[in-house]
Write a structure and sequence with these properties.
9 helices; transcription; WH-like_DNA-bd_sf; 6-stranded antiparallel β-sheet; 8 strands; DNA-binding
Length: 257
């Protein structure tokens, strides 16, 4: 196979843009020289060109940040993206747990809204449908997404009367939920142990995109409780974490769930 040849100037330009994108603060020319190790003359030429193309902008204090042209690319990418199509494409690529029910949902206030479902061949006694709403605190995808929220946003998301329970299981207050969210962060996946339906265990993971630190969606798999022994739970949780990572990559995220 013929080896790919990269254009050095393009690689250097992308390196500059990546460094500015990764920095929480604008960077001076001196900062860029130190961080990138490029010759000053080469970096100066790159910055001048990037400025002319509006890919970076220069602030009044002389430091640099990303420019408006980059936002145009980001908006074009997002406008072409269909989250549900990416979900099914990622799942088809992986081909794990093919007989189980898989769902994709987003947060909407205190609920999760299911936007894509692939109901499996194993009967659960419960059918997920696109458009279905359930209280986020009881669902695997809801817990996965809530676990990624900064503390102020999480407090705001939970600032409402506790929803009526769907079963005799699941968290009964914020304190119990916080314990579960801590487990999600430790394990990398969430667990709904019969909180949505008796006899059904669900395992979820958070999906990220390139623009948000908090999750933009969640994926989950549902198993019959009688089949959810310790080994099966671990397999299901890890499978969802891998699926979430694959979908996050398709959405342009550098962070993994």
């Amino acid at each position: 196979m013929e080896e790919k040849k990269l254009v050095p100037a393009v690689v250097r330009a992308v390196t500059v843009l990546d460094e500015l994108a990764a920095s929480p603060e604008p960077l001076s020319f001196t900062d860029l020289v130190k961080r990138l190790g490029m010759p000053k003359s080469s970096l100066y030429g790159l910055c001048t060109t990037l400025l002319d193309l509006h890919l970076i902008r220069k602030l009044e204090n002389g430091s640099f940040t990303l420019g408006t042209h980059v936002m145009g690319w980001a908006n074009a990418f997002l406008s072409q993206l269909d989250l549900t199509q990416e979900f099914f494409a990622a799942w088809d690529d992986m081909r794990v747990l093919p007989e189980e029910t898989i769902t994709l949902s987003i947060l909407d206030g205190e609920d999760v809204v299911y936007i894509a479902c692939r109901n499996g061949t194993r009967p659960l006694g419960f059918t997920f449908r696109a458009g279905m709403r359930l209280p986020a605190v009881y669902t695997a995808t809801g817990k996965a997404m809530l676990s990624t929220l900064p503390a102020p946003e999480l407090d705001q998301a939970l600032n409402h009367p506790w929803p009526d329970p769907l079963t005799a299981h699941g968290p009964r207050n914020k304190e119990e939920l916080m314990v579960e969210l801590s487990d999600v962060q430790r394990l990398g996946y969430s667990v709904d142990a019969c909180g949505v339906r008796d006899g059904m265990h669900c395992f979820g993971a958070a999906v990220f995109d390139s623009n948000n630190r908090a999750a933009v969606a969640g994926v989950a798999v549902s198993l019959l409780t009688q089949e959810a022994d310790e080994a099966a739970q671990r397999r299901a949780g890890e499978a969802m974490r891998k699926l979430a990572n694959r979908l996050s990559e398709r959405l342009g995220a550098s962070r993994k769930a």
